[in-house]
Design goal:
The protein has helices spanning 4-10, 19-32, 73-78, 92-95, and strands at residues 45-46, 51-52, 57-58, 70-71. Helix content is 24%, strand content 6%. Bound molecules: zinc ion (ZN).
Amino acid sequence: MGTMKDALLKAGLKPTANPKEQNEREQISKKKMTESVSHQVQRNFCEECQQVLPDVELYYHRNPTTEAEWICVKCADRLKIADSFRQTAQSDTSIKKMFRREHGATRQASEFKNVIAQKPKGPVNGNR
Ligand SMILES: [Zn+2]
């Protein structure tokens, strides 16, 4: 007789998400929590240049040369990703209203509700 656990594993459910990653996220959220990102964790790691920077935002772009979505201003400019693809105004730079794009127009911070649209990557743990 197969156990319930076997059945769940067969159904594709992973028993645990990456616990280490979750711990790191919790730490960041405590340290970096601000009013405008109170329900989500602030992101400041540029997936393109792999650096922690104060002006990283989420872009749902269609640039085929990169799979990065959380991108700093410098990389976004270099990749010529228009600010119209930007989804967030959550970085420290945005919060201080110092966010400026060199490539094309910069969207007004008031166009963003500071809701971080999260697109899950990899296994998702619904028990957070
Ligand atoms: Zn970058």
